[in-house]
Amino acid sequence: GGVGKTTLVARVYMDQMVISHFSCCAWITVSKSNTVDDLLKKILKELHRERKEQITLDFDSMDYRTLVENLRLHLAHRRYLIILDDVWQADVWTDISYALYANNCRSRVVITTRVQDVSSLAGEERIVRVNPLPDEMAWDLFCKKAFPREEGNICPQNLTQWARKMMDKCDGLPLAL
């Protein structure tokens, strides 16, 4: 982790021009411990919250089948964007995809993951790989963050050797820099 997958997707998700193309959106952070039922509940709650709709149903008491029915009903005829952030297990997508209504409205589901088995489910042509920064860009970012008060964010000469060693340990990962 740390190459900026979540940050990149968040910038797109927060862009009003992007969001204006969808009638409903949901951002779900998936943890290793979430069950499929938990994720479906999170998606339903987020879709209602995002649309400022009052939740009149008790999602917490619903079983898998009822959750799927409610989600499919909610998404029918709507162009939706759902972000599943930090997915660790391939079966999460397999189990949830059934509930996400294929309504021919050009809806989108974006998954961020560091697990090859998860990303391969999307098909090779749909995978966007985010790589660590090249050395020069990593150095520029490091200096910008480490030396914000220096003119031009330039590393002071007496710290260059130490700063380069620190930057190298970050392996080009923007979040580490």
From TrEMBL:
Coiled-coil features, chain-numbered ranges: none
Pfam family, one: NB-ARC
InterPro entries xref list: Apaf_helical, NB-ARC, P-loop_NTPase
Domain named NB-ARC: residues: 1-150
Molecular functions (GO terms): ADP binding
Lineage top rank: taxon: Eukaryota
Gene3D superfamilies on file: Helical domain of apoptotic protease-activating factors (1.10.8.430), P-loop containing nucleotide triphosphate hydrolases (3.40.50.300)
PANTHER family: NB-ARC DOMAIN-CONTAINING PROTEIN, PLANT BROAD-SPECTRUM MILDEW RESISTANCE PROTEIN RPW8
The protein's name in its UniProt record: NBS-LRR disease resistance protein
Gene: R
